[in-house]
Structure formats: structure tokens, C-alpha cells
Amino acid sequence: MKFSTASVALGLLPLAFSAPLEKRQNALPPVNSLTDELVAQLALYLEHLELSLYTGGFENFTDAEYTAQGFPPGFRENVGVIAQHEAIHSQTISTVLSDAGYTPVPPCTYKFPYTDPKSFVNLANMITSNGIGAYLGGASLLTDDPALLTAASSIVTVEARHDAYLRAGLGASPFPTAFDTALTAVYAYNIAQAFIVSCPQQLPLTILPKLNFVAPAPPPNLQPPTPAGTKLTFSFDPSTFFVKVDPNAPLFIAIINMVTNVTFIEATKVDANTVTVPVPEGAAGAAFAVLTTFSGGLNETALTDFGSLAGPAEFILS
């Protein structure tokens, strides 16, 4: 049996909402402000993306194809279960927004660059890490709405379990770091743009100039971890920057990883469109890079608000 996005949403959601529907709806958390709405809309935007991703990972490959690439028996079926979870998350957030009088953001048209089960799972690890980062970053904006914060927290813990299962299937550590990485709404939204073909409605968040992670490729099975000092290469187009930058001015890569927040590293210029920096000591798991002219002194919020030339670019260290 194959799950389409429609069958997951229509066939499986009654299990979550029909026992009984009125009582479940009354228990959903309120959306009390425009800030709450933006956090919820971004969460829904990313849940739509993940639903499409995992539905494709279930429908596009057979059990035999997963097994041939080293995944354990039953792995494909669990990808389908993850798709079910994403459908329930999407419907729940949509209901929360509708109950508060807001129109839920609709799904976009997506394109995912995977070709086989292993490349799908590697991509799913990256996209799920971005979703986890968005939930963690949004949590600080929901401190005046405990019910909504609790609901968001109950989703992000499930997302983390999904990611741990995927990583274990690759033969990687299911928990490569002691902390996950929080992302601002703008950064999480920009990471998602790499997979968007078109959208009937975008969110009121800035789309930044693109920063491309060029090299190195993640280690096989995501282990051993990429060692500190390994050269990271990034490319960009200076003509897209929102501000004019002196070609001779120093550039920096700000690396966002775990709770160390932001590490600023002066970049070595390869040419006008390419820079390199070393992996900082202690960096691991999913990391995010931003090109900037600032040498330090900014937290992630300030870097987002006025310090970003291009980015972020996501890369996997372990």
C-alpha cells in the first residue's frame, strides 16, 4: 500500500481527531497574537514541506530498494509512519490557526534532489534538522502563550525522534550532539527555499541572498565526525547582496551550531565568489553558515536582523 499526501491527510487524520472531534478541538491551544501567528504559520509551512518529503520517500522506493542500500527491514514502512505524523502535525496547526481566525498557509510545490533511498534519508536528516531548529527558535517567542509553547514542544520532540531513527538507519549516531541548534524564523525559512518550486502564498519573511555550501561532502554514514580544521568552501554572488561591499573588505563566515550560538571565522578568499573557513573546534551535527562583514559581537537574532550578506547554508558535520 502506498500513502499519497491526500490519503495520509484524509485517511489517517480521523484517528487523531475523531475521538471525539469536538473535545479535541476545544483542547487545542489558542493563538493570542500576531507573533504567535507567524510562529505557527512558519511551523505549518515547514510541516507541509516535510509531509511532501516523507510521502515521496515512502512512495518512490520499495522495501527491496531500502534493504539493498543497507537499511533494516521495516524502514520504508516507518518512513510512511513519519509521513502520517507530518500530516497530523499539519492538520493540527491548520486547525489552531483557523480556530483563531487566521487562514493557514497552503502547501507549496516542491522539488527534492534525491535519487535513491540513501540520498533521500541524508536529505531528510538535513530538512528535519532545519524544522527542529525552527521550533526551538520559535519557542522563545511563545513565552507569553504557555499552551501553544507546550503544543509546539510536543511536536519538536517527535521530530527529533524521527531524525534519530533516520540517522540510525544510515549507520550514524542517532544523537551526534548534546544540544540541537535553534534557528531564527528568517533563517529556517531561507533554508526551506532550496526545495520550493512555487508557492500560492509566501510568508512575510525576508528571503536573503543565497550562500552555497560547496565542500566537503558529509562523511560516509555521517561518521567519523568531520574534524576541526577541515576546510569548508562556500560560494555566493556579490551582485545579489542587499548592500554594497568593498571587494577588499574582509569577509567572515558565522557558524551557528548547538548552544554555542555563533562562531565568527575570518574567511580566506579564493575568488570574488568563493571563500573557505576551517571547521571550528567542537562543531558537530547539523550546522548553519552565514556570510557577513561582522567579525563577532552579534547573537543569532542580531545577525539575522542586520548582519547577513548571504545564507544560511546548512551542512552536516556528523
Structure, explained:
The protein is an alpha+beta fold and 318 residues long. The chain is 44% helix and 15% strand. It has nine helices and ten strands. The protein has helices at 5-17, 21-27, 34-59, 63-68, 75-99, 117-139, 146-170, 185-192, 300-307; strands at 109-110, 196-198, 211-215, 231-236, 252-256, 262-266, 268-271, 274-278, 286-292, 310-316. The chain has a four-stranded antiparallel β-sheet, with no helix packed on it. A hairpin with a 5-residue loop joins strand 5 and strand 6 (262-266). Helix 3 runs antiparallel to helix 6. It is globular and about 50 Å long. It starts with a helix and ends with a strand. Mean pLDDT is 89; it is low at 1-26.
Low-confidence stretches: 1-26
Treating each run of at least 4 consecutive H or I residues as one helix, how many helices? Answer: 9
State which percent range the strand residues make up. 15-25%
Order of helices and strands: HHHHHEHHHEEEEEEEEHE
Radius of gyration: 20 Å
Decide which structural class fits the backbone.
Answer: alpha+beta
Average the pLDDT over all residues and give the rounded result.
89
Strand order in space, largest sheet: 3-4-8-7
General form = globular
